[in-house]
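Q: Protein A?
A:
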Amino acid sequence: MGLDGRNNLKYAVDIVLCIDVTDSMWPVLDAVKKSAMSFHQRLDAVMADRGKAISQLRLRVIAFRDFGDHAKSAIEQTGFLVFPDQAAEFDAFVRGLLPLGGGDLPESGLEALALAIASPWERGLDRRRHIIVMFTDAPAHPLGDPRSRAAHTYPAGIPAGMDELFEQWGYASSRTALMENSAKRLVLFAPDTEPWSELVEDWNQTLLFPSAAGEGLEEFEMDEIINTIVNSL
């Protein structure tokens, strides 16, 4: 990957894919895998059409289930993987994701989102874009849910409630934000129910593409994610 041919600006793009991998997601999980694994080539192509190039592209995956139902595999995740050098490692991880468990309808999506927000985002280069994408067909257990927090695998440092999570997401004048306000974007492929509907109403730089709760994702467009990135650079 090179430089923008017109102005030599260096573009850094970090993307975290939060993927619900419970049973109800099996119809679309293969499509999510396929799209995720072709994502970098498609992004490169659209950027080239705009006369731009990404100097550094990193992807991270956080796959989630339910701490109250499947504590051992409630979270499966990678660190940031650099493309194209670590594409094979990314592909192997995504191919290994299997739909499993779920129990009650809500899942541990907010914990996955909290882990995504706390990612070690790129802070250098000329222009940055930090994207979190959530794929789920379920509402989420509230942060602080005792059954979830009782799991032996529950990560340290997860916010105790939505107010604290919003502080970490941040707003223009926030001093406690973990995200860079001008760089961040949150794209939700999720039901138009709480907590996701609440996020799109209250959080800045957030888009919601509704799915049917408990019925899998009927469809999603990776092009929406790509356009979100390209149009903001």
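Q: Protein B?
A:
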Amino acid sequence: MRPVLEVLVPDGFDLWRVAELERFALLPLGGDLSPAEVGAAVASIAGWNAGDSDGNSDGNSDGNSDGDGPPRPADPLASFFHGLVTLEDLLVAGGLQVTDTSTGVTFRPGCCDGLEDWRDWYRFADGGGLLGFGHEPVSPLAECVGSTVRLTVNADEDDSPVIELSVTELRTLLDAAERHLADFLALATDWLPRHLPGHHAPVIAALARALDLPAPAPGPQP
């Protein structure tokens, strides 16, 4: 199990160096990312919260769909991060991806349960039932039957591949996924003051809130 982020670096982005990644590809998050990959991840998370559907910071003038937020700053960096640091409900498209290494089957996140909701998995592990992650044409579904968890790659298909594991195994995987997220946040906390001095503190706090993690100690000052 690995947390993955759906890449959304705005077209023509030039505020800092980012890795060249395919738009909407899934980037695994953890402590092993290169500086350029961290830059792409930070840009993508800010892009998903930029205030318009294309991930560009010039959509809504205030970066808030209801129009009652603070005005967007004129400074390009502050403007780009405006939605991330001001919106109450943050979106981090992606989720937790599970691969069965014995069969090669991969359970990918859907469109309806992003990384901002990753702790839903813990609630599912504790309470069982069903946990849906998307809708047609691809509907990933997790269900708990007794002590067994079934991860259906696409519940819209009768012959969809399935991953089965125990609830105990799921909790172990979730603990590892949480460490990956914490390692990424620590890496970003170190990266931000080095590459974006003067903007890092509110962005670090917003990233922690977006990923539902405790805010780490600030990285070294540039």
